[in-house]
TrEMBL record:
The keyword Transmembrane applies. The gene is lspA. This is Lipoprotein signal peptidase. Keywords: Aspartyl protease, Cell membrane, Hydrolase, Membrane, Protease, Transmembrane, Transmembrane helix. GO terms for molecular function: aspartic-type endopeptidase activity.
């Protein structure tokens, strides 16, 4: 059931990304569609051939390959650790894969990524729905890992803070 949730959420996020980018596909880069949305952002089209903050500008194909390889590795990790991966980690990994595939598709099909969300309260790169999925997915994954560690720590002997098991009879450490 976890795999169905992973695939469903990943596909849903990919669909949201594709649909949102289609709204900007026929516009000229730099076009501002909306200003002051919720007092937080503008919607302005940018064609991005690099990564955030202008890094690796013009490396869109290599960044697309990197995205696909990363998504494949994330999916393999999920499948290998299926029994141990919790709900937060599952959601996080699905968002990373959905967002990563969304941006990779842009890179391979168009030669650039369509970015359109521009925050107005601070200096920050223009981004898109895929980027939100990747960022939030990483946060959820890390929170899930930390929650799992906390659960594991509660289940351990409180006198064994190092995580080493001690045998009472011989006084030896088991590793």
């Amino acid at each position: 059931m976890k795999a169905v949730g992973f695939i469903s959420l990943g596909l849903l996020w990919l669909l949201l990304d594709v649909i949102s980018k289609q709204q900007f596909a026929d516009l000229t880069p730099g076009t501002r569609v909306a200003a002051g949305v919720l007092g937080l952002m503008d919607l302005r089209l940018v064609h991005n051939t690099g990564a955030a903050w202008g890094m690796f500008s013009g490396s869109t194909f290599l960044l697309g390959v990197f995205s696909v390889v990363t998504c494949a590795l994330v999916f393999v990790y999920f499948l290998v650790d299926l029994d141990r991966v919790g709900a937060l980690e599952t959601c996080g990994l699905a968002l990373v894969v959905g967002g990563g595939i969304g941006n990779a598709l842009d890179r391979f099909l168009q030669g650039y990524v369509i970015d359109f969300i521009e925050v107005t309260f601070m200096s920050f790169p223009v981004f898109n729905v895929a980027d939100i999925g990747v960022t939030c997915g990483i946060v959820l994954f890390v929170l899930g890992l930390l929650a799992g560690r906390a659960r594991d720590a509660r289940g351990r002997d409180p006198e064994d803070a190092t995580g080493l098991a001690h045998t009472a009879a011989s006084g030896e450490e088991a590793r």
